[in-house]
Recover the amino acids of this structure.
């Protein structure tokens, strides 16, 4: 888990893990979202995913992130980058 770009209202969240590993559970998710919403006091958490990364998109959407914008042809593969957002009021983990 990595956070960056805190500006008082938003921060960027990045997550990486090994597929199939047992690192992801509700305790981990509660910690991940508690920090930005309860400690930092932001209204939203943002993240970005290459449109071609269907597994990461599915993961973000399963967590409750909503697509907010697309950056056309901004991904390394020439595809779009999708900007996702989780608002505090929509977060079921914090």
């Amino acid at each position: 888990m990595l956070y960056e770009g805190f500006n008082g209202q938003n921060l960027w969240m990045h997550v990486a893990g090994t597929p199939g590993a047992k690192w992801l559970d509700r305790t981990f998710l509660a910690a991940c979202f508690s920090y930005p919403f309860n400690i930092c006091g932001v209204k939203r958490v943002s993240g970005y995913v290459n449109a071609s990364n269907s597994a990461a998109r599915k993961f973000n959407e399963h967590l409750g992130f909503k697509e907010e914008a697309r950056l056309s042809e901004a991904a390394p593969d020439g595809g779009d980058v999708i900007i996702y957002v989780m608002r505090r009021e929509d977060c079921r983990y914090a």
About this structure: The CA atoms of residues 33 and 39 lie 9 Å apart. The chain has two helices and five strands. Strands lie at 2-4, 10-14, 44-50, 66-71, 81-87. The two ends are 15 Å apart (CA to CA).
